Amino acid sequence: MSKQMRDRIVLVLNRIPVNVAVIGLCMIWLIPTLGLFVTSFRPQEAVTKSGWWTALSSTEADSTAYDQSCAGCHGADLKGVDGVDLSDSALITDQFKGNARRVQLIFRGELENGDPHVPEDMEPSDPAQAATEILAYLEAQTGAGTERFTLNNYEDVLVGYDARGGTYEEACDTEGPTGTRSCEFWKDATRQGAIFRGVLNSFAVSIPATLLPILFAGFAAYAFAWLDFSGRKVLFTILVGLQIVPLQMTLVPIFRLYAQLGLNGSFLGVWLFHTGFGLPYAIYLMRNFIATLPRDLFESAYLDGAGHFQVFRKIVLPLALPAIAALGIFQFLWVWNDLLVALIFLGNKAPVLTYQLSQLVDSLGGGWHRMTAAAFISMAVPVIVFLAFQRFFVRGLLAGSVKG
Amino acid sequence: MSSTTPMIMRQGRAVPWLYVGPALIIMAIFVVYPTLRTTYLSFRNDSDSGWASSTCPDSESSCAGIFENYRRAFSSDSGRTALGNTALWLVVMVPGTVILGLLLAVLTDRVPYESLAKSIIFLPMAISFVGASIIWRFVYDPNPRIGLLNAILKLFGADSKAWLATSPPGNTFLLIVIGIWVWTGFTMTILAAALRSIPEEILEAARVDGANEFQVFFRIMLPQLLPTIAVVLTTMTINTLKIFDIVWVLKGIDTDVIATRMVSELYLYNNDGLAAAYAVILILLIIPVMILNIRRFNAEEAAR
To answer: At what angle do helices A321-337 and A367-388 cross, to 10 degrees?
Structure first.
């Protein structure tokens, strides 16, 4: 073997542990989220019956148990016994509907003439397991089984349907006029309890709370970078320090101030709070970017007779777009994902998504099938923003944020 | 500030203040005033009707005067639990995220699907802590047909456990795992950027001289990365001190940290004075780290 070839083999072998480690870690990072995602599309019965990791396995139902214990009488076509047509999906649905225990009871029981339902030589070693497999096979053959994936969970949480069982649509079909909550009640997805309303509230909070700090920070950053005024250095140093003030430090006084002004529970109060709290970092990030713009640009503009506002609007803003994008995405996601400010200043008066989610966890009234759907709705916007603007988001974060 | 004075043209004295004024006023109202006010309130009683010493029962000999709220914070069981758990978070999460981030930065640098791997690790940074908490509550579910952790244990024949209902400090460790899962993408990204700035020739020269990969890492990469690691450590210390949402959403037996204890006292029990004291304790823990931050900023400016 030539030395070159040996080197190459050694190189490849050396890479294996690295690849195994990276792929392994990525799986650990990804699998919890994947579980949430898969579960949000599974029907309620399926979520408690089997792990989400089984939902992706093959659809081919195993016929072994049926062939061993049932095919002798019921036949391969499921119609072997007169009057008991197992290929009839209505029969399977009415009799069993996902209840393997009933299958087990029936096939351990007796026929009308007193003989055992399943002859001894055809009896499975593990009747419970066999019953589950037989039911799965029958459901797959007749199409009577519950569907593997559904959008019901999303529909239910969007309208805020939180009854123990069933779906919003079923409630619409069955609930009579005497029901405490009629279908009309659920149909209104703009109720404060509905997740759809939470989505609207989250947008209503996040968009102004992103634009306002950028606006104020842009002006201030220009002055800090290119204008001369007394106290500039001291003010900027204080500003760097203000970045690390924890939210907790500001809650009590602002809460009391808002109580006096009647701003608790209002969007305006939250916008202003996020603006004030977001400004130190926003100015810091913007001024560091604007300060790196070439000096000649400003000198020639001033010489041409441009005023400060013109320079700001025509030169600074267009050139600072990358910084504005980084800041905007960072601030948007920060506000969208915030729980504490929304909890204290909005609460259940105008619940945003994170608040609704924390309430769902407390009650767990919705069950996992709905909680996963609600969680995924709240994650969809950040994930899309992140994937679309990853570069800007990372830049905004790495500029030195210690916010919160 | 920059070493050279900016060039100023036709500038009145008032003009700069038109630009910084609005931002300064908003920050003064929403950050500076509340910070001072909260500090003041931490010396007042819970209804702000007198000094904190007024909450001392007459018979109580251990009254701490106007520091009574701080005495309550440090001597009550709930306060000690919160302080202890915050220490636990710091001790586990800060090194945890930095070591894992460093490991991932070095490893992902050597695979062809580097950007995909980094995106996967970084993704949890984009979602809310509440979302992350729900994702992991699902993993920790007591039912082995729902919770992945118990399903894996069942595979090895072990009994299922109601993980989040376990006793401290085990339950806090489970919450710290979530924190590490979220923040490692952050440390990895910063460290990866620093790693890339190490000149390839230095590493190659060492390899040619017969150094193995471990020697290259410990003798060359690590010393070069130390300044960045210091930055990441301070940043993660602040981030960890501020951890709130995960503990708030998944609170178990005695899992409180300072940040959640503060909100509980304020929001649930209306103990405003005590809540303010917790907030001040939190910022007092952060200030030393902030001073490091400002020093770093000034050093960077000087190097410009």
So the answer is: 170
